Amino acid sequence: MSATPVPRGRHAPPLEVRQALQRERLLRAAADVFARQGYADATAEAVAREAGMSKATFYEHFANKEECILAVFDDVAQLVLTRLAESVQGEFPDYRSRVHARIVSFIEAIIEGRSAAQTLLVEIIGAGPAAAERRDAILDVIADAIYHDNHEAAPKYGAPRYASREDAYICVSAVVEVVARQLRTGKPEDPMSLVPVLERLFLGVLGQGLR
Questions:
Q1: I want to staple 28 with a disulfide (CB 3.0 to 4.6 A). Which of 1, 47, 93, 148 is the partner?
Q2: Domain range list for the chain
Q3: Cβ–Cβ under 8 Å, residues 6 and 26
Q4: Rounded-to-5 percentages of helix, strand, coil across the chain
């Protein structure tokens, strides 16, 4: 998500374009506010102010802050899924390199959009039952993607397959918890230092004999 100014006057774009740009700015602002203040303390007024808009404009796009954080979540989750899919396009010398590329892509996405990532992985937990269901659902989607990719790609590399879909889910859940801790506490200081740890997690669950 990137902030884009909305032209005014006779150069203003059509209404639907202006509304899309307003929504984009509000989502970016909301991610920053939720990350900085926490979901519980964030307000619609704070989000609107961060975006340089009125509170009335906020309510033209979202019924309340819960609807807003769900919209932020959906946008960021889609971006993460896209990045993960793009990370394994092309050829790799071995399966370990493929796992490495996917983990690096995920961590880079976290670094590039830290506020959005914190909303996705941390603040969403306190946003109510609908948010919790949305978070569980995206973890399922990512786990399914990892599981099916492994079963399709493993034979090409002579690599083992996950014993079950739950094995992939355990890996994804562990990654989310480790990265969420880094976002909350800043430990470890360099998120990229998590890459070898997460590699060992995925490869360890897959078992021995990986080449």
A1: 1
A2: 9-206
A3: no
A4: 75, 0, 25
What is the CATH number that goes with domain 9-206? 1.10.357.10
For the beta carbon of residue 199, count every other beta carbon within 10 angstroms: 16
Q: Which residues contact 16 (CB under 8 A, 6 or more apart)?
A: none
Pick out the chain residues at pLDDT < 70: 1-13, 15, 208-211
Per-residue model confidence (pLDDT) at position 8: 58
Q: Are 97 and 210 in contact (CB under 8 A)?
A: no
What is the pLDDT, as a whole number, of residue 128?
87
**For residue 148, which phi and psi values (nearest 5 degrees)?**
-70, -35
6 closest CA partner among 28, 30, 24: 24
pLDDT of residue 211: 41
Peptide bond into 188 cis (omega under 30): yes
pLDDT tens-place string over residues 76-112: 888 888 888 899 888 899 999 999 999 999 999 888 8
Residues 82-101: b if buried by 16+ CB within 10 A, e if exposed? eebeebbeeeeeebbebbbb
20-54 burial, b at 16+ Cβ within 10 Å, e below that, comes to ebbbbbbbbbbbbbbbeeebeebebebbbebbebe
What pLDDT shows up at residue 167?
Answer: 93
